[in-house]
Amino acid sequence: MGKFWSVTALAATFAVLAGLAGCGDGSDEDVTTIGVVGPLTLQYASFGEQMKQGADLAVADINKAGGVLGKQLEVDYGDDACDPKQAVAVAGQMVGARVPLVVGHFCSGSSIPAAQIYGDADLVMISPASTNPTLTDDRAGPNIYRVCGRDDQQGAVAGNYIADHFAGKNIAIVHDKTAYGKGLADQTKKAMNEAGLEEKLYEAITANEKDYSALVSKLKRNNIDLIFLGGYHTEAGLITRQMRDQGLDTVMMGGDALVSQEYWSITGDAGEGTLMTFSPDPRNNPAAKDVVERFEAKGVEPEGYVLYTYAAIQAWAEAAEKAGTTSSIEVTEALNNNAFDTVIGKFRFNEKGDPNLPPYAVYRWKDGKYAEIDTKSGEAVVTDGETEDKTPEVHPVEAERPGGEENDPTE
Hints:
By secondary structure, this protein is an alpha/beta fold.
């Protein structure tokens, strides 16, 4: 959070000051327009599509039930491309449009500076996916929330899992220099070190590159058994594929940014055995059963942050009904003082704006799908009476074994 966005944030704030005078609620007589902002283009567009799918169905369902306070909802979509400067500009546009809610942003590097704009404007922001602790630890206002977990929680689960299952092995901790990636990598490193396991390598990569052969060669020279990548599915997929091309059987592990079918599209069978952390799969929540079935009937797999986006809109709609208005001050009070029944479960926001939802879990990719595994046994969590194989074992190490300021994404 340096000058590169604070100056832009100031400019964006001045640009919408006129619109703030007598600021309304983004509605006319029959319609209330809400904002949804995420990466709708460029390399993280698959996550923006998850957000759009969740928002579209949430709004359709709410409208079918009568809308919010008798008004139908419409969505104004904003594309920040997971770029901090673009996120600030879009935030200014949303404030100028006087929407009563922004569901977003996706990437932490976008959410953190954008939250300053929303905080100053008293506009309710609920991120479905930004996990960097700074978003709520240094909260821009009481109107800033998230419905997902935090990287200090996620890193603790990842770090302890590595220490338990890869004790005595060679570990590399790698990040992509982003708010999300470095934050998650450092939290994982901290938990792993506290559990008694030290990494052999700590490296940084540049996101959006295509050739990671230099990193892969370094992994090979150091006989790395597991790489934990703080970064996104695109880079993780390319590194995994390039490791296999060089003959490495090093296990790839990452965070919730690997929760996209696009990861397997990049890796193919090379992604077999990849580990990742994510919240307990909301698709398995009984409260989501009907919604999941309707998504699937439309040919949409509600993976990743689809249901989290749906839940963010649900929580705001419930709060507005309780407040009897979409005015930010009253809705913020309702959000801070009530529990909400959503597709990801029933939760309340704490004093920071974080939800009291269940902790993170560990997942394994197998046959093009990911499934939760038990963090102690390595066995797949039993669903519908079926159990998967154990987590892949690390093969014995052999002598010459084949094995800025960039966009600042989430989480």
